[in-house]
Write a sequence for this structure.
């Protein structure tokens, strides 16, 4: 499949354009050649093998190259708020991509917010929240970047912690701010760095907020709101989206590899 | 001592004005009465007992009240980016202050950046960095909010982790991203949430960055820069500043209490 | 009636949300407790008695307290452009509200612009402008904050001044910039501080603009445009809205008191 | 004297450049020809007669023309925040200037803030405030636009009102918000529209704020701060500056006329 | 026809309002009197003769006056980004308009973008692009300011240059950056200064971009994209719009004159 | 010489930092590796051969590679206003740099404004302007980007045009807007795209402005100001700066090559 065809399909499926104004990440193709028919060079290159990873970094670029991929798809990319220069760390990673003929496609908030393929949707599946109770959660301007729903059978706090410990945590246990009810049915999810939505979670009346990494201020906010917060790890909560994309692309007849590099954060 | 005299002295000592343009926190007196001589009411009230805590929250307001304080001094306050309303959590905490005749004084970045009284300076003392190697670190516009220096005797990674585990961590172990040299001499410190200064740390050529809480992106940045990052806890690294202020105020002949409420974050 | 129910009804009736981007005033509940079921405290408190006033200030907070109110509804509140601190005058007034268990609900531009309950609508009624000639006037971005219409029987200038002198002016006569036609039929109204809409009034071809307080520049603008301006007092032209809200709330079965405190401005 | 020489001298004396960032008014030459030596036309025209008025408007342009002036100097000009078009009222006034070969020079905030020639300085003279107690008052970013000082012999409230009634009020009495002490010694002055500096006046501990026009909100602010506010009229308090400029220009050997057109506002 | 009627018709036909947010030019009536019925003066003046020119400048104002026009309609006006002062060049030109009772109406981007009357549409006609292949080109926020289409018979590069040399070039030959195919069928047009749309032209797959004036950066952009760029002159490519307006106004029964003043740029 | 040493010297000599706030170009090292001692890789690479060109583009990257350079220094770079993506044209050029181990250093406005090494200074030398009459010209916020001075022997217009035709114009004659005096002594220079400084040139009283490329609006501005404008070509006027840098670097003992690729613009 041509690179431009593949990235076009992903952009459409993930509704990339809708997140342009609220995301510091450049979404879509971040590094790679375009269609260049006019110049006599070949048009957009073919893609035979796509690697998927949570983070674009030296480690995953190397792993994707070793796997023989010509496209790397990640949730966290290399460009945040634009590049002023291609020097230092950016030069190292861009030049590694160039030298290995590896293109980079990134989907940050579009892959958080997607209600089927997204990180929160995948974690909601993992926690077994009832499909017909699911609704978008985590407002960011005109979009949402999370999901909430209810479990038919209530979790106890320890039980839910245990379930989350089964994620790819890099060996670091989930941390719990145990300020809510003992039985947890209604759960709000914003993967990655989601404690800023504690207020929205409290207003929505959920029993718990599940997210990845914490910030100091959420401790007292949770304590005063009476909501339990599970910090299960930024990486650990965000493997779902790229795995879902791997399935999607695999279904288009392209070879895929999912790369694991947990950070413990 | 009159409240206005005491807060005036703190503002001067901490150079509060210099941080006004870069800090989302309102620094100085956040909640409390002013001088009102004109109106026939008494002027600024007297302060007999000052409580100190890292966070202004329901728990610390209650503890300060129990201690008999009439002023609470904290590093994290109640007003970030201004208040649109005094409702919800803000109403609960402001009304608790009002009903208990407790004023609130806040020093956020000024207390991070102060090179003697500040959080980073205190942590540098705790780590035994040589006084004559210390210099300001952690640029934020025109100010700095951290400190760096060298230890005469090199730390091993495990040894430095152990030392940091002695802080008030709320029972949660320091986390280490061990990507730097085995012997650690040059250390950069930004307490609280300081991983955004990893790049400055790498440029400065330090062996390790010590901070409080982490973010996902620092993993690969540290790995690629070859710098070890110690995440010792946001709360745990920020008790130094308020303790130094307690000593200062105590020296002015006012009774003081230091409140502990570790968050584990 | 629960506080949250009552403020919710007011917000809906006054279309509070539509004015959020153009009003420096925080509209809706400005000071007061929210629903806090999660924390084990009681939920939103009950409201038995609502006081209404043009201005939120020490005088009206005291009067509302004396009247036994648990909610004060005003047109001008305490928060304009957000609060950086709760100190000085803000501390005095917020603490008076807290200590007297009095909540504060504010409706500024929504109560100017409402075409039935609003200040301009009430003043148009008082002046006897024909109902079927009324239309929104006073554009401010996407909303309007006044009303215009025609009187079946023309007013003379002195006659209209006399009629306006019957308002609650605090003893200060209306001031007239008499530059328009002798007979006044078409009248534009922006209550309070409305002389910035003189240009819109001239374009609309009205005979007179009726507003509250003046500004120097309107003198020559009115003279050159040939429009008569009536300055009837900021307070005097803005009692209509809160009186209409008192009627509304009274109809919901809640006791109400309208407080008068004319400013002469 | 050449027009460019005269306006250059005024700009220098009034320190026009220092107010550029805080004043919506374009200060300096607003309408008129420049030096055009290159084009073969004569260079900057000569000025034989300068008229002075508080406001630039049809009435004063006509009066200046009748007086035979070729330059009109005013405190309030025609350009506020820039002109998008020269149409409507702006066309009428600009074309009247052009057709009568009358240039327009404007000094707004520079003429409020000047500590000798300015409006507040002139009013302080009129009120007999002691020269050695005078200091700048009325902060607006990096500049000040008023003055404060003390009277050796205290005024009573009625006495000060009487003194202010002697200004060119257009027949409208000064209005007093009588919330301060009976004896008035320390007085802050911001002419024109100055009630926004009530807070600074209260902090400075003055007995009274003297200004021109009022706004609704100052009533309760003054009441709660215990400061008396005198509203003596925007026009009435701002004749001092242009009169001082007339003296200055007269001293340069140019004929001058001071035009009076009180607005009663 | 009354001035206000004529300018109203033009604004409607050209959809002036739609370009307000993206155009630095003030479009519509820039200099001239408005309806002033209220003031006893006559209402909007009558227009008997309209002159049309590409640029508003001393030369065209003089020529329009000589032709006996009372309205000048131009593509480039006198106000870009607002006027702070009416001095220097602006004074010379505004006063020439005033003294000759000549109003100025400007249509900048609306006249570039109009798909029938506009500059690009007129140039597309001149080049004989097929009517049914035409579509809007040249995106600028929500509007477009050019047109593209195909020629049934392909042009050679020299042939197209020859055709463009027939425009009113002021004697300066078109310049060609010959980096595209030899046969030119698909052509994108942005008149005036249009090289910033080279990227959009390349994406659209056209053979050539035709515009007026060049900028250094387009050389390598065109070379790398393989698109030929014709620089036919800013003035030369922008006579079409005002000529079309002259026809339009002539059809309303008003006398018209088209003024030519090529700039060679 | 190490790359980081060489670019550090250039930054210091050209005062790169002073232009950071006014230049859309990223100045300094735009593409290339940094010091990476920490990571175990070698530190900043050595530079043996530096190529210099006006523009960074496919053509000059190829020529620099053919010349055996490991650093390309240009006046116009690849990054303007930051990069959102490294795709399309940016990918082609960045990947060409990477694959050929060629770093890119850019100096845009610093190289226009430098009073000895800069483009305008070089052109002033070429025109023989007297050294002791030279002064900075062409204000852009806090910096200047041109130079002005006087020729001892006056030029005639044709003579100066002839002199400018001797530059590397790519075969396109200089264009003259001949509206000033016949004898040209005082000359202002802003190379590249400098017609926006026509007004400053007129105020400075020069006889002619010499720049590179034109814009439509300068025709009437020059005509009305009575200043002659020489448009000698953007490329042609901007070879001086990079040539001066080549001499400088050559003096540091590094091999240099100056690449010529005139654009005719």
């Amino acid at each position: 499949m041509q690179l431009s065809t593949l990235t076009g399909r992903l952009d459409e499926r993930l509704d990339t354009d809708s997140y342009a104004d609220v995301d510091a990440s450049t979404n879509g193709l971040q590094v790679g050649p375009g269609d260049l028919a006019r110049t006599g060079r070949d048009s957009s290159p073919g893609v035979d093998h796509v690697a998927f990873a949570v983070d674009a970094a030296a480690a995953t670029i190397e792993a994707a190259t070793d796997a023989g991929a010509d496209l790397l798809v990640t949730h966290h990319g290399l460009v945040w708020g634009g590049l002023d220069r291609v020097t230092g760390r950016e030069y190292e990673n861009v030049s590694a991509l160039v030298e290995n003929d590896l293109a980079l496609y990134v989907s940050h908030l579009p892959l958080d917010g997607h209600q089927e393929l997204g990180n929160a949707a995948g974690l909601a599946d993992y926690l077994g929240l009832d499909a017909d109770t699911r609704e978008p959660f985590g407002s960011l301007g005109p979009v949402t970047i999370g999901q909430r729903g209810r479990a038919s059978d209530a979790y106890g706090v320890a039980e839910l912690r245990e379930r989350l410990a089964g994620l790819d945590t890099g060996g670091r246990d989930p941390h719990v701010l145990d300020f809510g009810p003992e039985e947890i049915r209604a759960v709000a999810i914003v993967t990655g760095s989601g404690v800023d939505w504690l207020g929205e979670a409290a207003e929505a009346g959920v029993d718990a907020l599940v997210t990845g990494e914490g910030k100091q201020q959420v401790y007292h906010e949770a304590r005063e709101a009476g909501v339990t917060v599970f910090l299960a790890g930024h990486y650990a909560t965000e493997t779902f989206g790229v795995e879902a994309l791997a399935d999607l692309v695999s279904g288009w007849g392209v070879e895929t590899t999912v790369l694991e590099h947990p950070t413990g954060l």
Notes: Confidence is low (pLDDT under 50) at residues 37-42 of chain C. The radius of gyration of chain C is 19 Å. Chain C has nine helices and twelve strands.
